[in-house]
Amino acid sequence: MKRVFLIVMDSLGIGEEPDAALFGDRDCNTLKRISGSDKFRFSSMRDMGVGNIDGQSYLPAAKKPLAAVARLRERSMGKDTTIGHWEIAGVVSQSPLPTYPDGFPPEVIAEFEEATGRKVLCNKPYSGTEVIKDYGEEHMKTGALIVYTSADSVFQIAAHEDVVPLEQLYGYCRTARKILKGKHAVGRVIARPFIGEPGSFTRTANRHDFSLLPPKETLLDALEKDGKTVYAVGKINDIFAGRGVTKHVMTHGNTEGMAVALGALDEEFEGLCFVNLVDFDMLYGHRQDVDGYAAAFAEFDNWLPSFTSKMKADDMLIITADHGCDPGDSHTDHSREYVPCIVYGKNVKPVNLGTRSGFCDIAATVAEYLGSGFKGDGQSFLSDIIKPTAEEKALCEAAYEAMHSSYSPYSGFTVGAAVLTKSGKIYKGCNIENAAYSPSVCAERTAVFKAVSEGEREFAMLAVCGGKGGKLKGLCPPCGVCRQVIREFCPDGFPVLLMKSKTTFVKKTISELLPYSFSPDNLSEDK
């Protein structure tokens, strides 16, 4: 039973991206900034390999990191929570969501006022804590709603809980969500309730986000369709507007989020547990609180071993972020930064994947690990990080051995293949050339035909490798004829290991290698 725990340390950027200036950012590096604080602790994350990620030279690297690591560059045109999470879930956004540096246009505000029956205060970019300080008393006297935005694509409504009950505030947000469509389709409408008296207002933990629906299928949608569990913790359910989520728990900060994630390890499910830890961004990044951010990081670092020690054999942990929010740069907004990708599990090899283009590679990797056909806009790196099983090792060794029996005096290109049957036997084959080229036969067909000639009809897996002069160099995928032969005996999900070396491979299914194939099913009278 495979499970993936995907934890988003909201806003933990690790250095500005090359196009940061286009987004109004410069000299931003969230992790580097907080690493200079006296509150910063990172022993567990150091052991994982956070200092081994590209560009983190200010942190000591682990000599023997425990996890696979990568630096991810965002492909979407944005630096906000919605777009960042969509990309993590496999959807790249080509256009940025609308922002309102001068406030929302009169026609939007007028429609909102008419629909709610309440006037609007503020209507400009503002700090969430400052806006209630400056407008909270007037709101309490008049009942007008405090509407404000930020550099992000958000329509925020602040209201005192004694003036506007929570459910009524949420209803106003739903109204705004219906109004804000088309060119005004902001990423999120956010309820920002507060309490207290003038001069001492405080925001409560009853924030609620009403997000724009993703423009196309996400990893969450695909896993739900596959019958897998999608367990959303924190604001994940809000970000995806509940779509693709099978279970969710709202949390009120990092500490509760980590507790829920830890408890999820004791639950029986197959699928994804998707966690957002919002305090890094909401409480510390936007408020330019370097020490507070560093202390929150230290809390996570201290908690991490309690989580990893409880992980089961097939569990995978992925730690990443959705954007940056440097608490020490020149503004309070998000920052366009690379994000970390740390992958840990008992079956994960501690390799450095360098810098990859796309948060969406996470979705492709999770999908492949959980056996989903979802690809999204990313490229899976699963074959680069997952340790081979005993069966896969044996099959690769057999294919490599078969390659050295190749009869290829004309091309000099040697190929070996090995097929594992469901009875547990391995049959090897090599390519055999002929002076009259047409009688030549490929290694894959040799192996499969040998097995069939011995009465085998059910196959579990096939491995293939090849190269000039008996040396492996790059992948050696089966030719079209061999793919058709494999498809004759094997279903769409049949795994084919394309070997990169004696011990590493890229795993593909026969349906990926031969889409829209002609199979025995096509000859069935029922078709």
Annotate the secondary structure layout.
Layout: E1 3-9, H1 30-35, H2 43-48, E2 68-73, H3 81-88, H4 106-116, E3 120-125, H5 128-142, E4 145-149, E5 154-160, H6 166-179, E6 188-195, E7 202-203, E8 208-211, H7 219-225, E9 229-233, H8 236-239, E10 247-249, H9 254-264, E11 271-277, H10 279-285, H11 290-308, E12 315-320, E13 339-344, E14 352-357, H12 361-369, H13 382-385, H14 390-403, E15 413-421, E16 426-430, H15 443-453, E17 459-468, H16 480-489, E18 495-499, E19 505-509, H17 510-513
Parallel strand pairs: 1-11, 1-12, 2-14, 3-4, 5-6, 9-10, 9-11, 17-18
Antiparallel strand pairs: 2-13, 4-5, 6-7, 6-8, 12-13, 15-16, 15-17, 18-19
Largest sheet: 8 strands, mixed
Q: Given the structure, what is the number of helices?
A: 17
Give the helix level as a range of percent: 25-40%
Question: What's the arrangement of strands in the largest beta sheet?
Answer: 10-9-11-1-12-13-2-14
CATH architecture classification of the largest domain: 3-Layer(aba) Sandwich
Tell me the CATH topology of the largest domain. Answer: Alkaline Phosphatase, subunit A
Total strands: the figure is 19
